[in-house]
Design goal:
Layout (H helix, E strand, L loop, with lengths): L4 E6 L5 H8 L11 E2 L2 E2 L5 H7 L1 E3 L12 H8 L3 H14 L14 H13 L5 E5 L7 H14 L5 E5 L3 H7 L2 E5 L9 E3 L3
Parallel strand pairs: 1-6, 1-7, 4-5, 5-6
Antiparallel strand pairs: 2-3, 7-8
Helix pairs in contact: 4-5, 5-6
């Protein structure tokens, strides 16, 4: 649903990252199907999911070591409206000073922001974040949460897989807990109450 903010938590090994991999086309489900706006995406490659409006980040940042950050962000922003959006996102995030740097020269919190920008630049319908708080301090987490709240549009749905409930409470409306061998959902917590 547009603008919905959902958190998914659970112990290691219950299938949280697998769920994201299936929902974004990196894995194929054993049964069922994936749809967005009545368009079936099951069995299609990950790039087809991206073209349909589904973007994601990964548990570990994934940037090329042979290109600077600015060059890599431009790879995603091919359409004129995406380039304009990229310029705005970079300005709002404060990443201008890091654009000429290579990923191994950039602190993790900045790379996390860059990953989110890479996901948002195409104005997706759904953005999946896979453990975005990994490696961040409490202060960095507060800044990152504020950045996410500021950048997410009303039309973009957000699904966050995360262990840190304090972080999810900052950026989601409800949290679902997955459990192994007991069905997918244990409970849904409304973080606004």
């Amino acid at each position: 649903m547009p603008g919905q903010r959902l958190g998914i938590t659970g112990a290691n090994g219950v299938g949280k990252s697998t769920l994201i991999n299936i929902a974004t086309g990196f894995l194929t489900p054993d049964s069922g199907h994936i749809q967005l706006n009545k368009q079936t995406l099951t069995y299609r490659p990950a790039w087809a999911f991206a073209q349909a409006g589904i973007q994601r980040t990964f548990q570990t940042t994934r940037f090329l070591t042979t290109a600077n950050l600015g060059e890599q962000l431009l790879l995603v922003a091919r359409a004129p409206e995406s380039k304009s959006r990229l310029t705005k996102l970079i300005k709002l995030s404060g990443l201008q000073a890091s654009l000429h740097l290579f990923p191994d020269e950039i602190p993790l919190p900045v790379l996390r922001k860059a990953e989110v920008i890479r996901g948002l630049v195409t104005n997706p319908q759904v953005l999946f974040l896979d453990e975005p708080s990994a490696g961040l301090t409490v202060d960095e987490l507060d800044q990152f949460g504020a950045f996410l709240r500021q950048q997410l549009g009303q039309k973009t749905a957000l699904v966050v897989v995360e262990h840190r409930l304090d972080f999810m409470a900052m950026i989601t409306d409800s949290i679902v807990e997955m459990q192994l061998n007991r069905g997918l959902v244990k409970k849904v917590v409304d973080v606004n109450n």
